[in-house]
Amino acid sequence: MERKMFYGAKPDIFFKAKWLRENMTEAEKLLWKQLNKNKLGVRFKPQHPIDIYIVDFYCHALNLAIELDGESHRNSKEYDQDRTCELENFGIRVIRFNNSEVFQNINKVMAQINYVIRECRIDKDST
């Protein structure tokens, strides 16, 4: 069975995702410059709807979501954990970074993303 791309996301989620793409945070813009145009050998989409959620960046080929946690996330660790659990129930691997990590050491963030991409490819090839 082919994996679904949006996992039942409703039209209002798509409108919100479009707005978020047009109004990315500075950290999202910086990371998007690194992920855009298949620079890592896989395609990521920014602000991608999945069910009732919108993930910051999503690679459909690897079922991989990247989430950036900003200032508004400091008091929402439980929500983030629940959200990650829900996404993982769809078979999506989620990796998270703080905005400060992106600003202070984008090379380290990219190295971690590359590592996870390699892991995902190995997992995909072994199934």
Describe the structure.
The protein has five helices and four strands; from the N terminus they run ααβββαβαα. The protein has helices at residues 11-22, 26-35, 77-89, 99-104, 106-125; strands spanning 45-50, 53-59, 64-69, 93-98. The longest helix is centred in the last third of the chain and has 20 residues, at 106-125. With 127 residues, the chain is of the alpha+beta class. The model has no long low-confidence stretch (mean pLDDT 91). The protein has a four-stranded mixed beta sheet with strand order 1-2-3-4, sandwiched between helices. The chain has one domain: 3-Layer(aba) Sandwich (Endonuclease, Chain A).
> Which class in CATH terms?
Alpha Beta
Mean pLDDT: 91
What letter string, H or E per element, gives the SSE order? HHEEEHEHH
Helix-residue proportion? 40-55%
CATH fold-level assignment: Endonuclease, Chain A
CATH superfamily name? VSR Endonuclease
Question: Which strand order spans the largest sheet, edge to edge or round the barrel?
Answer: 1-2-3-4
Q: Main β-sheet, in a few words? A: 4 strands, mixed
What's the CATH architecture?
3-Layer(aba) Sandwich
State the secondary-structure class: alpha+beta
- Low-pLDDT regions: none
Structure summary, number of beta strands: 4
Q: Tell me the overall shape.
A: globular
Strand % is: 15-25%
Number of helices: 5
Number of domains: 1
In angstroms, what separates the terminal alpha carbons? Answer: 14 Å
Rg on CA atoms, Å: 14 Å
